[in-house]
Specification:
globular
């Protein structure tokens, strides 16, 4: 039995089976998930998965240097030419977050080092029987959210960061009956 949230659409199932809850230390992927999770605010994850390729094309596969220098003119062109969420604040957050991530990389050596230092490099493996047991936030997501905001990031509230930690495998929230739970793989 897989996690029920992934049963609605093939994109959700693919993401669930190959990415969600799998520990990642790849800075490009970690940045991609930070941007996509922020883009999801107020929307469904399926909406974001459907627009993921549009984001990859618009942001040159989430190239950090490119994203850090997007100006208003480029943002307007991206809105017209790519299938992304058409929200100016979320578009501005891409640049702000890229600049903040570059500073994090300079300070910590990588975005991975920064994210994983909060858990001493070890994933948190939860043991939920059902999705209803799963929280929307945690002390960890609140702490990271606060720190990212202090560093200049936007769209990084505790709920967004909890989802981000799930996406990056810092937290494994697969239900225990799911074959993709860490202890079942």
């Amino acid at each position: 039995m897989i996690c029920p949230w992934a049963e609605g659409h093939e994109l959700e199932l693919e993401y669930h089976n190959t990415e969600w809850g799998v520990p990642s230390h790849d800075d490009r992927y970690l940045f991609e998930m930070l941007i996509l999770e922020g883009a999801q605010a107020g929307l469904s994850w399926l909406t974001i998965l459907k627009k993921r390729e549009g984001y990859r094309a618009a942001l040159k596969n989430f190239d950090l240097d490119y994203c850090a220098q997007i100006d208003d003119e480029q943002a307007a062109e991206i809105f017209v030419n790519y299938d992304i969420i058409k929200n100016r604040l979320k578009m501005q957050a891409i640049r702000k977050n890229a600049i903040a991530v570059k500073a994090i990389q300079e300070e910590f050596g990588s975005l991975s080092n920064y994210i994983w230092h909060f858990t001493d490099g070890k994933p948190i493996i939860n043991h939920w029987n059902s999705m209803s047991e799963m929280p929307a936030t945690s002390e960890l997501s609140e702490r990271i959210s606060k720190d990212l905001k202090k560093r200049g990031c936007n769209f990084v509230g505790p709920t967004i960061i909890y989802s981000y930690l799930q996406a990056c495998g810092v937290i494994d929230d697969h239900i225990i009956a799911c074959p993709y739970h860490t202890e079942n793989r």
